[in-house]
Amino acid sequence: MPEDVQQTIQQNAQQPRRASADGVEAEQHPLPDQIAADRYLASKEAVDATPSRGLRWSKLQPGGAA
Fold first, then answer.
1. Do residues 6 and 41 make contact, with C-beta atoms less than 8 angstroms apart?
2. Alpha-carbon distance 50 to 28, whole Å?
3. What are the tens digits of pLDDT across the range 19-62?
4. Bridge partner list, 25
5. What is the pLDDT, as a whole number, of residue 51?
6. Global pTM value
7. Cα–Cα distance measured from residue 39 to residue 22, given in angstroms and rounded to the nearest whole number
8. How far apart are CA 62 and CA 29, in angstroms?
9. Residues 20/34/30/18 CA torsion (nearest 10 deg)
10. Hey, which residues does 26 pair with through a beta bridge?
11. Can you give the three-state secondary structure of the chain, one letter per residue?
C-alpha cells in the first residue's frame, strides 16, 4: 500500500493544485498533508512488522568493581 501512496503523491505533485472547467472546480489536498499521511502509514507498517510491537527487553547489570 505505501507504494500506491508514493505513486499518488508523485502524480499529485505533477498536477496543478486547483483546476476549474465549465464551472466545476477541483482541488487536491495540500502536499504537506499527503506527506504526513504517507509517513503515518509507513510508521504504522513498521510497527506492525516488528514482533515485539516496539518493546525492547534487556537485562540490567550494575557497573563497578567486580
1. no
2. 34
3. 888 888 888 778 787 788 778 877 877 777 666 556 777 888 88
4. 20
5. 65
6. 0.45
7. 36
8. 53
9. -10
10. 19
11. CHHHHHHHHHHHHHCCCEEEECCEEEECCCHHHHHHHHHHHHHHHHHHHCCCCCCCCCCCCCCCCC
